[in-house]
């Protein structure tokens, strides 16, 4: 999770939003990235999507079974769905979707536990890991003069 937090800090410094993700398999980092929505001008380029794309290329498969995704914020419904389709085994997140919504992000506040239940997804969901450090990322981003939101 700390690697994801550090990537989010890097993203904030690069004019991106305060979200970072690492994907690991068998204890090894497969991908570690930050959100690149503004850099790529791609609204779907959330950190989770970016990390999944990199992990699939690196592992040469679309099946990420056995992988754990560490996200500084609870994945949105799009990102949760991508994790489900990629067969990621576990989602570990820090802050909650509702925390991002409070900052003004255009979130659909459907918690991952609800998505898991409604979709009958086998993904294990573990939340609130290093949450305070994640909230610090939001504070750091909020203090940026030229911050952009979507």
Model description:
The chain is an alpha/beta fold. The protein has helices at residues 2-13, 37-40, 47-59, 77-85, 97-102, 112-119, 131-142, and strands spanning 20-25, 28-34, 67-73, 90-95, 124-126. It has a five-stranded mixed beta sheet with strand order 2-1-3-4-5. Strand 3, helix 4 and strand 4 form a beta-alpha-beta unit. The longest helix is centred in the middle third of the chain and has 13 residues, at 47-59.
List the helices and strands and how they pair.
Blueprint (H helix, E strand, L loop, with lengths): L1 H12 L6 E6 L2 E7 L2 H4 L6 H13 L7 E7 L3 H9 L4 E6 L1 H6 L9 H8 L4 E3 L4 H12 L8
Parallel strand pairs: 3-4, 4-5
Antiparallel strand pairs: 1-2, 1-3
Helix pairs in contact: 1-7
**How many β strands by DSSP?**
5
> SS-based structural class?
alpha/beta
What's the main sheet like?
5 strands, mixed
**Separate helix tally:** 7
Helix content: 40-55%
Q: How far is the N terminus from the C terminus? A: 24 Å
Structural key phrases:
about 150 residues; alpha/beta; 5-stranded mixed β-sheet
Give the structure's gist in a few sentences.
The protein is 43% helix and 19% strand. It has 150 residues and is an alpha/beta fold.
């Amino acid at each position: 999770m700390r690697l994801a937090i550090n990537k989010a800090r890097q993203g904030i410094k690069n004019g991106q939003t305060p979200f970072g993700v690492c994907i690991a398999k068998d204890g090894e980092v497969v991908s570690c990235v930050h959100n690149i929505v503004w850099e790529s001008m791609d609204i779907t380029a959330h950190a989770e999507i970016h990390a999944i794309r990199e992990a699939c290329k690196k592992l040469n498969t679309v099946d990420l079974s056995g992988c754990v995704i560490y996200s500084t914020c609870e994945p949105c419904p799009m990102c949760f769905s991508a994790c489900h389709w990629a067969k990621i085994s576990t989602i570990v997140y820090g802050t909650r979707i509702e925390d991002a919504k409070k900052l003004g992000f255009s979130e659909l506040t459907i918690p991952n536990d609800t998505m898991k239940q409604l979709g009958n997804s086998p993904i294990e969901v573990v939340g609130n890991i290093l949450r305070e450090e994640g909230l610090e990322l939001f504070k750091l981003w909020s203090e940026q003069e030229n911050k952009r939101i979507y």
